[in-house]
Amino acid sequence: MIKKKKELSGEELSRLVVHGMLEKKAANIVVMDLRNVKNAITDFFVICSGNTDTQIDAIATSIDEEIHKASGLHPWHQEGKQNREWILLDYVDVVAHVFRKDRRKFYDLESLWGDAELTEIAESMEPEPLKQILID
Fold first, then answer.
1. Which residues pair with 33 in a beta bridge?
2. Which InterPro entries does the UniProt entry name for this protein (predicted)?
């Protein structure tokens, strides 16, 4: 018997993205709620920074694995896996942005989408309790 995976809301997807980021020690995690921003292309941006190309790749892989385990989904679209300066994972309702620090500062998405509601995630937050909240 094949068990169908749970369909996730934008909020649940964004929490899973955060969990994947925390698993690989991402820095400066911000969730941008774009639902009340006129002409927004998605409901949520989740942005983080990594220190090295290897860490950036590991964070993106962790995000993909967390969402796939919970829902069976893979990104609808992804970019940047080759150069690993800015990896984008598009899950339609949620877009994850994994930046190298200098690239994040250059593109400054937080200012570009200044009308969005921002939630900063503490880097000291433990990923496992967050995961339990998501699963329940």
1. 44, 117
2. Iojap/RsfS/C7orf30, NT_sf
CA distance 97 to 89: 7
Distances (CA, A) of 2 to 22, 34, 73, 92: 30, 35, 16, 25
10-128 adopts what CATH topology? Beta Polymerase; domain 2 (3.30.460)
Cα separation, 28 vs 40, in Å, equals: 22
Please answer whether residues 56 and 69 qualify as being in contact, where contact means their C-beta atoms are separated by less than 8 angstroms: no
Coil, strand or helix at 71: helix
Could you tell me which of 43, 118, 56 has the C-alpha nearest to residue 84?
Answer: 56
**pTM of the predicted structure, to 2 decimals:** 0.85
The CA R_g of the chain, rounded to the nearest whole Å, is 14
Domain residue limits, the chain:
10-128
